[in-house]
Amino acid sequence: MGGKPISALQLVSWPREDLSFEILSEVLRGGLEIMNKAGCTIIGGHSIDDKEPKYGFAVTGIIEENIYRKTNIKEGDVLYLTKPLGSGIISSAIKKNIASKDSIKEVTDLMTTLNDKALQFASEMGANAITDVTGFGLLGHLLEMIGESDLSVNLYSNKIPILKYAEQYLEQGIYPSGSKRNLEAVRENIQFDKSDESVVNLIADAQTSGGLLFSSPKNTSENIDALCQKIGIQVWEIGNIVSKYKNKVNIIKS
């Protein structure tokens, strides 16, 4: 973690008989818009006819200074998250054609927000370890950070930011199969009270374009609110790193 994107090749698979080129034009326009925001130049690409639409980039970048590894957490570190959770649940609601316009806007705004400001914030906070929260959900990526170390995490269930509509759709029984697999994969490494079961479902939710999860020393001289305001970002303190006890991740109320 810590690289700066420089150039990219655009990769497109498109079912030309089923989806119009007008839709493809909008996809390409959206990709160009985000790459411009990231300061990354699209220098070419490849396209093929395919049964399913696929779109992405092969990106080349550089790291000039700090290389942040996800496993470099330290005892006493504070754990921060830079985006709310729940995009997987809302995406499932969209696929089922039951998502409201407000929920679609909520999750789209979240997923199209770059993590450049989040990385700047983590860097200025003196981060020890950084990862992004994507397909394995917060719990899966957090367990990757802990690895086989002699450390545990106290995760504050009442401080984890959740998208408003994600909670609503979860109550309606919408929960992606990928998120269910995430939960089963981490269950033996987490401990929580039954009253937090719905929160646990949410923090196992598979994310698309999630935020950064990072740890930094507790005794920082930075005024966090002032730093958030300066950079233009919202960040949540969601836990802390302690010596190993009970289980790898202990979900508690702060």
List the helices and strands and how they pair.
Layout: E1 4-14, H1 21-38, E2 41-49, E3 54-62, E4 78-81, H2 87-95, H3 101-111, H4 116-124, E5 129-132, H5 137-146, E6 151-156, H6 164-171, H7 177-186, E7 190-192, H8 197-203, E8 212-216, H9 224-231, E9 236-243, E10 249-252
Parallel strand pairs: 1-2, 6-10, 7-10
Antiparallel strand pairs: 1-3, 4-8, 4-9, 5-8, 6-9
Domain PurM-like C-terminal: 74-249
Domain PurM-like N-terminal: 1-63
Keywords: ATP-binding, Kinase, Nucleotide-binding, Selenium, Transferase
What is the tally of beta strands?
10
How far apart, in Å, are the first and last alpha carbons?
A: 29 Å
**Biggest beta sheet attributes:** 7 strands, mixed
Quickly count the helices. 9
Roughly how many Å is the radius of gyration? 19 Å
**What is the strand arrangement across the widest sheet?**
5-8-4-9-6-10-7
CATH superfamily grouping of the largest domain? PurM-like C-terminal domain
CATH class category of the largest domain: Alpha Beta
Helix content: 25-40%
Structural class of the secondary structure composition? alpha/beta
Element pattern in H and E: EHEEEHHHEHEHHEHEHEE
What percentage of the residues does DSSP assign to strands (E)?
A: 15-25%
Shape: globular
Quaternary status: single chain
Task: List low-pLDDT spans.
Answer: none
